[in-house]
Design a protein that fits this description.
The chain is of the alpha/beta class and 121 residues long. The chain is 33% helix and 19% strand.
Amino acid sequence: MGNKAVVSLATGLEDAERVTVAFLVAVGAAEQGRPTLMFLTKEAVRLAVPGFATAVACDGCPPLEDLLARYEKAGGRLLVCPICFEARKLDKGDLNGNAEIGGTVPMWQWIGDEGATTFSY
């Protein structure tokens, strides 16, 4: 198994605790030096737009804004489902610096032949 990590997230702020857990896992991988990719689908695509992730999931939970900043600083990437993004009529020009539009084919290309550890939320 390869050193890469892929976190698939299909939940947005309708379940901020789930989003927080997904980002904690991704931040942990990226900060440990693992190449890390989050594949955002459904309502999670909104998290790739600056200013959207402003929630605090629970008392004692880190703010999502801080987790996104740590993830980007550690080199983590966001791959945003183009179908989900366009269905929500979001602007591609508004994406975070570490985000790009791409579907399952670019995800599999990024994983490559070495494989990856995966998590799904």
